[in-house]
Structures are given as C-alpha cells and as structure tokens.
Amino acid sequence: MRTFSGIQPTGRKHLGNYLGAIVQWVAHQERGEAIYCLVDLHAMSVPYEPAGLREAVYDTAATLLAAGLDPGRCIFFRQGDVHEHTELTWMLSSVTAHGDLTRMHQFKEKSAAQRELVSAALLYYPVLMAADVLVYRATAVPVGDDQRQHIELMRDVAARFNARFGETLVVPEGHYPEVGARIMDLQLPDRKMSTTGGSPQGTVYILDDPKTVAKKIRSAVTDSGSEVVRAPDKPGISNLIEILAAVRGIAPHEIEASFNGSGYGAFKGAVADAVVEYLAPVRERYEALRADEGELERILAAGAEKARAIASTTMLDVREAMGVGPVRARQ
Ligand code: TRP
Fold this sequence. Notes:
By secondary structure, this protein is mainly alpha-helical. The chain is built from 12 helices and 5 strands. Tryptophan binds at residues 4-6, 8, 39, 42, 129, 132-133, 141, 143-144, 147, 150.
C-alpha cells in the first residue's frame, strides 16, 4: 500500500483536524509507504499573502512533526517544491470534464463566497489534487468526509486517462476516518469544528494554552437531561463523548459505560483534563520545532528530493503515453 495525503498550510490547526486527519497520517506511517504534502499551491486558489503563506507552511510543518510525523518513516514535503505536480495537472486537464469541475460542491461554495476574484485556480483545485496523488501512483488516500467528491473525480480522471492513453496511472481509493471524523463545534454542535465556519469559543486549537483548552471544554454547550449517552437530541454531549473516545483511543460506548450516572459536570471536567493532557506534549514539541526554520527547510528539502524521484518516473511514462517528447529508448 502506498498512502498519499495533502494538508492545507493554514497555520492554526484545531482538534477536529488533529483527530480527523493528523492522527490518521501518523498511523499510516506504520502501514507501508506514506507520502505527505503541504499543499501551498492549493492555498493560492483564494486570495493570500505570499509571506503569510511561507509562514503558514512552517507552522503546519512544525505541527505535523510535533504530532509524530517522522521524516525517517514517511516522505514529507512541500507541494510547490516538486514541479511534477503542476506538470501533471495540465496533462490531466485534457481528460477532465469542465462540467465536472463546475459541479464540485467546494467550487460552488467557495466561488459563491469569494468577494475579490473567483480564480481559475479555484476551478482547477481538484485537478491539482488529482495530480498530487496520481503522480505517486498512490493506492490509498486518507481524507476527511468533505473530500469525497474530489476523490471520486480523481478516480474518474485516472480511469479516463488509462482508457485513453493506456494503463499508466493507478486508480486510488479514499480512506475516510471512523472515529474523530466529525468533531463538532463545542458551542454549535450541529456544525463541524472549523477555523472559518465555527465559533471561536467552540474551536479548540492544538496550540491553545492549557487554561484556554480547559475553559472551552468546560463551557461547551450541553443538552437537557443529565445522562452521558449519545443521542440525536444530545449533539453537545455526543460530541464530547466522541472527543474523549478519540483521545483515549477507545470506543464511545466504553465512555458511556464509565460515566454512567456521573452527571455532566464531572464528565466535562474529565474531558477537559484528558484533552489538556493529550495536547500538552504536542504543543511543547511544536515550540521547539517552529523555532528552527532552517531545520524545517532541511526536512522539507530532503522530503522533496525523495518525492521527486518517484514523481519524475511517473511523468516519463505520462509524457510518453500522451505523445509529448520523444519515445524513450528500450533496453
Ligand atoms: N483538498 C484537501 C483538503 O482540503 C487537501 C489536499 C490537497 C489533498 N491535495 C490532496 C488531500 C491530495 C489528499 C490528497 O483537505
């Protein structure tokens, strides 16, 4: 199995990102080959500041390394450093239906929300994402539920390429998280925890100090009743049960069993303590890693070199299959 995934370099990652994506990435390092990418080129699809983007790449790199990504056991790099991604984007665009791109939920939402410029990059976002994965011939793509449509498009594009130009690319599979997939906002538990769409008090950032983390969790909205059980009419308590289960690495029903009869106050206190303890070492490692940008650059450069070795081989095959450049000599 070869795993590939990408993460947006938005500096501040929250508990939902952590339990939904980052923890999965760390786990996948142990199961075969894993390739992880900070997608700085995707970040250009909406208005941005160049200096801010570079900083955000460092912030996110340090966060992932602090969480346990090990550059010795995975390939970890910055998308923009490996030019094959952009070259393959163009190649794939010839087998991508324009109509499919305009139908993507994310494109529709982001272009409707865009006040400045609806860039062509926003429309092309899923083609670049397909290139990210296909250039490594990855088999597995761990992503959040919100990426399903992009994964289906990527699979269609790979299959259409192979049908048109001969078997060249691997059709990958999306892997969607079970636990921690949907960590909800603590104040608005019918919405996903999010940097943009949620409430500041309901969003726990990985780098929040322990007091802030504890305060946000203790003041999470709860529901009527007093039992610690999951139920459709108890989105607040259900969310806290999911969070504690993910942090402790056990099933939600085990949380319900152990807090049977204990009431909301004691339960929220336990969730707060557990999350504080869980995030504290990550935050400490982050501070040390983030302080050394030279070392972060060295790690990313070494990763890009390994990535390029794989990506450039795929591009030789793609170019040849598409009739670009000379036919390669066969031994
Ligand atoms: N679009 C993904 C997200 O927002 C990030 C991403 C970019 C990605 N390229 C990828 C994820 C390739 C998986 C594979 O979460």
